[in-house]
Write a structure and sequence with these properties.
Elements (H helix, E strand, L loop, with lengths): L2 H9 L5 H15 L10 H17 L7 E6 L5 H9 L3 E7 L2 H14 L5 E5 L15 E7 L8 H13 L1 E12 L1 H13 L16 H10 L3 E5 L3 H14 L9 H14 L12 E7 L2
Parallel strand pairs: 1-2, 1-4, 2-3, 4-5
Antiparallel strand pairs: 5-7, 6-7
Helix pairs in contact: 2-5, 3-4, 3-10, 6-8, 7-9, 9-10
Amino acid sequence: MSGEPRKRQMEKAIMDREQVRAHWRDWASKFGTALGATTRTGTAKMLEIDALARRMSAIGLGDAPAHVLEVGCGNGLNCFGLAAQFPRMQLDGIDYTAEMIDAAREAAVANGFQDRSSFRIGNALELSAASGLLAQYDVVFTDRCLINIESVELQMRAITDLAARVREGGHLIMIENSMATYDRQNHCRTLLDMPARTPAEFNLFFDETRILPHLKTLGFEVEIEDFISLHDLMLYVLVPAINGGTVDYDHPLVHAATQLSIAVSAEISSAFGAFGQGRMFVCRKP
């Protein structure tokens, strides 16, 4: 993607706000508590939860009581993955889709986490209107949430509101797709004579030239971890290169790349370069 089409994608999503909401309402109704409500890629979800858990352990949440908020929680899969690994963690989740919240509450009971999790309707752009939230949290996190906001200006406004919910010494952690790394991944595809991919019409990937300076103005110390590069190179570049251009979410090499990524990430951060469409932005409030 280059020139004017890329510039337009970076400034505004194709779908408007109500169309995006309708998309997620439809997926929630179709898939309920299942993985498919928020992603088609089970291996990517494994890597996202692993990245979140590793980071939360690294910042000292392993043994201590902690209050964590997920904004854009979907049907709660991230919260349940963390609750299983951090027995003293209390998790709140908000999502603007009522069907997602219904599914999250159902799954909380089914998984036995109803005493350590709470799910309610709320919007990243109207965080102050969400009832029952704490004033501040040890960690506030998102996972492919803010890319569903239709303009960079509104993404930055949401980040400002999220930052206000982070206590001093706490963290804002955002796993969000980035145009910078997406472009690198697409360049790899063109090197193998495959066409560039384009983001889904309900997504607006982060423009880091604007998001990173905004995080600095909010006073955050920012670290970026590229935890999914090997997986995405395998899924979107190498397997299609030998598979007639087809993306195969269940290919054995994709599963192998997932397991290797988890094992290596426990020892070396960002070991496979910056080629994954998702990045983890770890923002500490001094």
